[in-house]
Structure formats: C-alpha cells, structure tokens
Amino acid sequence: MEHLAHPSSLETNKPSAEAISTPDDTQSARPPKVAFINLGCRVNRVETDVIASELERAGCEVVPQTEADAIIINTCAVTSEAEAKTRKVVRRAAKLAHTPFVVATGCVASLHADEISSIAENVNVQVNKAQVASCVLNEFGCIAGSVDDSGNLISTPTPTGRTRPGIKVQDGCNNRCSFCIVWKARGPACSADVDEIISQVRATQAHGAHEVVLTGINLGDYRYEYKGSRLRLPGLLSEIMKQTSIERIRLSSIEPPDITDELLDVIAGSEGRIAQFLHICLQSGCDATLRRMKRNYTTAFYRSAVERARDRMPHVALGTDLIVGFPGETDDEFATSYKFCKDIGFAKMHIFRYSKRSGTPAATAEGQVDPHVMAARSRTMHELAAQMRYTQAQKLVGMRDSVVVQTAGYGITSGLFDAHVDKTIPIDTLIDVTIASVMPDSSLIVTRI
C-alpha cells in the first residue's frame, strides 16, 4: 500500500475556495490548484494520473497539499488498516488551515460514502472517478466542458510524477478470495474498449513515453468483443504492438490461471517489446492455506505456470505477492510456503502480514495468528526475498537489456531491476545496455550500448 503525494513540501497557505470564484463570474474563474493523495494499488495510481491529467488539461496546476485549493484523495479498502489510514488522511486534509475542497473517491468512498462525507463539511465523496475532475471544476465555477473526457494522459512524466504511464484496461473482479473485499468495492469484472486503449498508448507515446504499464484489478480477465472476435489479454497485446510503435509494454500483476501458452507465446515473440517480467500472484506456497484463502489454483498448478514461462523465456523475471500469518497458518504451513518460494526463485516479492478486513470470511475465521508470530515470519520471508533477488540479478551479468531512465542516474530494466546509468542521460529515455555487475542491494551497474 502506498501513500503518494506531490513531492514538494512547501507550507504556503493559499486563498480559500470562496476567494477564487463567485457564482456571478464563472467565465473568469481561474482553475483551482490541486493536490493528490493516492492510497493503495497500481490501478489507483493510474486512475489518479488520469484525473490529474484531466484537470491539467483544464488549466489546473498540481501543487502540494498546503498550497492546494482542492485535494483529491483516491482511497483504499484492501485492509482495515488501509481504511483507517484513509479516514486519517481525509481528516488531516479537511482540517488544513486554508480549508481546501476535499474530494474522496476510490474503494472506501464506494463502501462507506456517508461516513466519509460526514467527516467534515468541506469533504465531498465522488464514487464515480470519471466525474471527479468535473466535480472539482464545478465547485470553483469553472466550465466543466473544458475537461477532455478521452481519459488520455497528456504529459510524461505524469502530473503526479511518474515516468512510466499506466493504462487501466480492466476493472473489477469475479473472484471471491476469503481475505478480500475489493470485489465489493469495485464490482464485477469489466474491460476497456480496445480502440480507447490504443488511443491512450498513442497519446502517452506522443508525449515522450517509451513504456506503458497495463493494469487492472484482475488484468488476466481482460475480454472484449473486437472486430468480430473476443479478445483476451494476448490478443490485446498483439493489437497494441500492431497498431502502435510503443517500445515497451509491461504487465502489472496477473493470476496464475491466466498464464496461458498463448500469453507466453505473445510475450516471448515480441522481440523485447513486452517486458519479460511476470508478477504472478501467489499469496501462499502451501496448498492448505490456499484452500482457506479460496484461491483458484494449487502450488502444483503455479509451479507448472512458472516452468512453462521459463521454458519459453529462460531469463524471465518473476514477481509475486505473499501473505504471511493468514488465519490457520501453522509453523509447518509457513515452512512449506517458505520452501516453495525458495524453490521458485522470485526476483521480486511483495510480502504482507495478514490484516483483518471487516466483512470478509477470513476476519472471523478460527486460528488467527499472533501478531508477533506474523512479524517474525515476515522478517524471515523478507530475508529470503532479498537473497533471491540478488541471486536472480547475478544471473543477468553479461546480458543485454533496455532501461527506461526514471530519475537522474537511475532507471528500470525489463525485469524491473534498478539500474545505475549515466546521470547526463535525460529522464524518460529508453537506452540499450549491457549488465556489467551487481551491487549489494541487487541494483545493476550497466554500460550503454
């Protein structure tokens, strides 16, 4: 879970909303200065970027919270702690001395609209993210029609500071994992129009992007009727490569059942245009725990997916999500999960301690694990993750790759490893490199080809 705000920390108060516009002078009202707080997943980040781009097109300036006339908060409900953080963030924003107009959207806003809106009079809940930009502009007497509804990002880096723009191609989820409530907040699975996705890719590339990241709540569930056939994710990737010249496409997290031979063939045959990185969600490396989680695969199925991926792409980098301390997880089950992860050899792991989420079956399940035990298991798994990442990085020495420069002197490889590059190379440049060596933190020393 992330809390992303504008990097500046200036503490300058600005005029209140009332000082900016009046009902009698809507045509001359200036667009408000806006700040963004993003809580949660990759999809939230992409949605925040889209809202920021819409407001930027309308003339708004992205500023720190203390300078903002309006603050947009994209909320997260993945855990009870995430919900609590959402309430705290909304309260803090609403209490700023200059009383900004606060808009809360996202999962918590969907689940608890009345509660969030009651936090303060200057808090507005907007469940429909597509209406957030117009909501803000209307509040300040600006012309709502000045917002371009295409949803295309207009700048790279994005208004909120990201250099590899994300494109949301799918939303919602039809699975019912016992620890998750996101399906309630997001609704059933749905997919974006192919032509709209192509348009977004072209728009980001026109503004300098060399890589786009396809995101979704359940990305592998993408399906859309297109030119007489139903496209799944492999077909969408093929269309993007056919209809655009974007240099690199990256997939965000994907479920094990969606690692199909067709998908692997498309990635392997893309000649590097699709990043050879697969973040395949695991959650546990123990079948007994997976059954209690109500996950729709076994460890044997997962291992088979990994083997097929490595058969087609020997140097593919693998990422995953893992929960430790899920209700009922015994020492033996944790040991089984640990061994499975070690056998797979992940390049990147997101490790979470189980957190009760009110409204989910797991929250009231027997066998809740002691927090101290969870903390110890988390430390053990983080140590393994660091060891595996270093081992996987060493295997890349001498190989060629491409790097998107994200900040001065640093970039990201196809396999999502940090790479040290010449500081004179401009941000958001794509360069071909040879991997020369590995630093102790698993970052790569590269030489430009």
Automatic annotation (TrEMBL):
Top-rank taxon, per record: Bacteria
SUPFAM superfamilies according to UniProt: Radical SAM enzymes (SSF102114)
Keyword Iron included in the entry's annotation: yes
Disordered as annotated region, ranges: 1-31
Domain MTTase N-terminal: 32-145
Cofactor needs: [4Fe-4S] cluster
Name recorded for this polypeptide: tRNA methylthiotransferase YqeV
